[in-house]
Amino acid sequence: MDDNTAENFEDNLEENLEVQHTMEGLEQYAIVASRRQQWDTLLWQMPTMALTGEAFLFTISLGGATSQTGRIVASLLALVVAASSLHSLSAHRLSELADSHWLHEYEIGRGAAEVHGVRVQANVSHRVRVNV
Fold first, then answer.
1. Is residue 78 within 8 Å of residue 61, measured between CB atoms?
2. Contact call for residues 107 and 114 (beta carbons, < 8 A)
3. Residues 33-53: tens digit of each pLDDT
4. What is the spatial distance between Cα 33 and Cα 30, in angstroms, rounded to a whole number?
5. Which of 54, 67, 91, 108 places its Cα 20 to 30 Å from the Cα of 83?
6. What's the pTM?
7. What span, in angstroms and rounded, lies between the C-alpha atoms of 78 and 87?
């Protein structure tokens, strides 16, 4: 009877560890999926904010009442905003791709449906191009 109890205890322990490992993996998956969604949102928000700033700076630099020094300063600021927005956009895209790749590998490793990753995005783009 003691051998059966010990075997049951070991079986239960192994099952509990597997369940705990699965739950931790699902939590990590949810965290990375949420973070990837935030990167994707930033990819759309950042250009909008940069273009708004650019419009304001170009209004100043192209205004007739602005002094030449003011125009030069506004033009230089517009250049800095453009360069920093391009850098930020590329960094956000790189982070989004890294998270998409991790999610894709996780899905492949667990035998789940592939809903993330570059290949999935390419398939969606191909379907959109074909339908247009």
1. yes
2. yes
3. 888 888 888 888 888 889 898
4. 5
5. 67
6. 0.62
7. 14
